[in-house]
Design brief:
This protein has 11 helices and 9 strands. It has 300 residues and is α/β, with parallel strands linked by helices. Strands 1-2-5 form a 3-stranded antiparallel β-sheet. A hairpin with a 7-residue loop joins strand 3 and strand 4. It starts with a helix and ends in an 8-residue tail after the last helix. One of its GO terms (molecular function) is glutamate-tRNA ligase activity.
Length: 300
């Protein structure tokens, strides 16, 4: 949900030659039809209490066993290795003996994630799947499902995770509510895992689209530096046209109850005076409050 809400805020849109709806999903009944039609391709069987080799917790779940094919590529139980496309400088391989048979449909008839996403991507003709490296185990399962259904395999690429300074997982922070600019967030996130080969750091979204190439994506994990993000936001803040900057900061002060709309002239002069010293629109709040709150003198 955070991604669905965050992407529109960052003003990321579909390219002109793609669908006008960036978030698509197939209905469960559509996906279920694939699992029903292709049971023979999978060699699907339903487990029961008579399957003595199955763990107790798997009883009554529908599981998939890939039958032998002439090349042996679809048999999961053996020691063969599944290879799948990988866009970086190295190929990733996985020993199939470590995988075993896996569930594609629950006992209530609902297909599981790996089956659903494979059907979704294949029927929408997705050509490239780029996601975090933690999805590598899912990719093996999806590659086998692609083969079993006879779908063309997309290119898979897995990028390193973005970590906190202590190398733990990043926590959720509401940067929108903190008044970060969406263009600054896009610029900073892009540079966490990619670079154009120069020292350039300031990019508009359009310039990022023009300069991006998959071969320059970093293979090592990136560290999220909130100080650098704040600096980046200041660069984009000062790059705004003066009229837009005055409107943005002025609206902030009026919402915060610091100034009124009737004080437009003061807002314009204050923004011009303070813009070089702020990285967030909230940075000047205390300064402006100090300037407009009447002084009270006490005489003893």
């Amino acid at each position: 949900m955070a991604t669905l809400l965050g992407v529109p805020w960052m003003r990321i849109r579909c390219l002109p030659n793609t669908t006008t709806h960036p978030f698509l999903r197939r209905s469960s009944s559509y996906i279920l039809s694939f699992s029903t039609q292709n049971r023979r391709s999978f060699g699907v069987f339903a487990s029961s209490s008579s399957d003595v080799n199955l763990p107790e917790k798997k009883v009554n779940e529908v599981r998939v066993r890939f039958a032998f094919s002439p090349t042996g590529n679809l048999h999961v139980g053996g020691a063969r290795t599944a290879l799948f496309n990988y866009l970086f400088a190295r190929l990733v391989s996985w020993g199939l003996e470590t995988l075993g048979d896996f569930v594609i449909m629950r006992s209530n008839g609902q297909p599981v994630y790996n089956f659903c996403v494979t059907v979704d991507d294949a029927t929408m003709a997705i050509s490239h799947v780029i996601r975090a490296e933690e999805h590598l185990p899912n990719t093996l399962r999806q590659a086998l499902i692609y083969q079993a259904l006879g779908f063309p395999m997309p290119h898979f690429a897995h990028v390193s995770l973005i970590l906190a300074p202590d190398r733990s997982n990043c926590r959720n922070v509401m940067y929108k509510e903190m008044r970060y600019l969406p263009q600054a967030m896009v610029n900073y996130l892009a540079l966490l895992g990619w670079g154009d080969g120069t020292a350039k750091e300031f990019f508009t979204l359009q310039k990022l689209v023009e300069a991006f190439t998959i071969d320059r994506v970093n293979k090592s994990g990136a560290i999220f530096d909130s100080t650098k993000l704040r600096w980046m936001n200041g660069q984009h803040l000062r790059a705004l046209p003066p009229k837009d900057l005055i409107k943005l900061v002025g609206e902030r002060w009026m919402v915060a109850g610091i100034l009124k709309e009737s004080e437009a002239m003061f807002i314009q002069e204050a923004v011009e005076l303070l813009k070089d010293g702020i990285d967030l629109v909230t940075d000047a709040d205390s300064i402006v409050k100090f300037a407009v709150v009447p002084f009270v003198f006490y005489f003893f």
